[in-house]
Design goal:
This protein is an alpha/beta fold. It is built from 12 helices and 15 strands. The radius of gyration is 21 Å and the shape is globular.
Length: 394
């Protein structure tokens, strides 16, 4: 007899961010006079740039005419956006055909369906790591293996003595939640291992815009990656598209797994699972990649970087240990006084009025840590700093 997918029993009962919101709402209900500051979920707070909204408004007007109306979008994205993304890669010395770029409504969506390309292949994820890699691997029936990301390895694990077996390896750089970013040597090490073992790297570059300009932003800056890697990119954190939804994946024509061309399989899976992304959204994304659009986006990124720097300075003076958010909008810190992740979450909520993200929600190795997001208004960041200094200064 059939039934419900029993793999749901391997997941946490609540998705991490639903549990956070539940605890926040319960506290706010019991303390209606308190002002809660959220540095938890990684949602942007600044509005879309004028260049983007102008392009979307113009696209909406087009849609109101017979000549400019667009129905179902192309399953893989409009050529104008695929070409614009390929052009952005070319500026960093990476040559991609627009046909190797596939538009979607979010990197999360792509990360969730990639496991469907494979059968009986282990999925290797970092611990801590973005929960979607783990959860969708389990739901798809894969054996999920964990690679610890710890203070000792700089939260950037390398293959080391991993056995040479084909597997799907999910890596995020800069990392979510840790914010740690691989340098070129680290990326080369993973590419070499993937080629030697017949593995596939799923490289999540959603936060690459926060890296220094001279750091590698794409796995395809390592030439051999064309044969063993796919990449996920997103407009959410670069252009503020969390409420608009637009992203892309890169599947080169050379990338194979078990001798099979993955691009061919990806096209089949995408055309089955999605009707594409709206014309309005894609015109907005194209505008975000224009010269004026990039200037607007960079101002937002600089704003969040400054938020992260102010938080980092606060925690440095408080003596908290961890990563300071210099390559990422996130700070990854060890909990004070040896508290567990949820104990520290509750402490900050009740004594500081601050919502964070418990590190254990990203994996068992994340226990004893908290993730702080810099995606907040400046006045909220400064108020959070004042509260933290008041409560934790010795």
């Amino acid at each position: 007899m059939g039934g419900i997918n029993t793999k749901f029993g391997l997941l946490s009962e609540e998705y991490l961010f639903r549990e956070i919101e539940s605890r926040r709402v319960a506290y706010e209900t019991a303390h209606p006079a308190e002002r809660i500051i959220s540095l938890g979920i990684g949602d942007v707070t600044l509005p879309l740039g004028r260049c983007v909204t102008g392009a979307m408004a113009l696209a909406a007007k087009e849609m109101g005419t017979l000549r400019g109306f667009h129905g179902y979008p192309p399953a893989f994205g409009y050529p104008f956006l695929r070409e614009a993304i390929a052009g952005a890669y070319a500026e960093r010395g990476v040559t991609l055909s627009p046909e190797e770029i596939y538009i979607s409504d979010g990197a999360k969506t792509d990360a969730a369906i990639i496991p469907q390309l494979f059968s009986e292949v282990p999925v290797l994820v970092t611990d801590p790591g973005y929960p979607v890699y783990r959860d969708m691997g389990l739901l798809s029936g894969h054996r999920v293996r964990f690679l610890p990301a710890t203070r000792e390895n700089g939260y950037l694990p390398l293959p080391g003595d991993l056995e040479d077996i084909p597997q799907v390896i999910c890596l995020c750089s800069p990392g979510n939640p840790t914010g740690a970013a691989y340098d070129r040597a680290g990326m080369e090490t993973w590419v070499a291992y993937a080629r030697k073992s017949g593995s596939l790297l799923v490289w999540d570059a959603a936060y690459a815009v926060y890296l220094p300009s001279d750091a590698p932003h794409s796995i395809f800056e390592i030439p051999d990656a064309r044969f063993c890697a796919v990449e996920l990119g997103s407009f959410s954190k670069s252009a503020g598209f969390t409420g608009v939804r637009c992203a892309w994946s890169v599947f080169t024509e050379e990338v194979l797994f078990d001798g099979q061309p993955l691009a061919l399989l990806w096209r089949r899976l995408k055309s089955t699972s999605s009707n594409g992304v709206s014309y309005l959204t894609q015109r907005g994304a194209e505008a975000a990649l224009s010269e004026k659009g990039r200037e607007e986006c960079e101002r937002k990124i600089a704003y969040y970087r400054e938020n992260a720097a102010r938080l980092s300075d606060c925690f440095f003076h408080l003596g908290w240990q961890g990563l300071g958010g210099d390559t990422s909008p996130y700070l990854w810190l060890e909990c004070p006084a040896g508290l567990s992740s949820w104990e520290a979450f509750d402490l900050l909520l009740t004594r500081v009025g601050l919502v964070t993200t418990p590190g254990v929600g990203f994996g068992q190795t994340g226990e004893g840590h908290l993730r702080f997001s810099s995606f907040a208004r400046r006045e909220e960041i400064m108020e959070a700093v004042r509260r933290l200094r008041r409560v934790f200064s010795k």
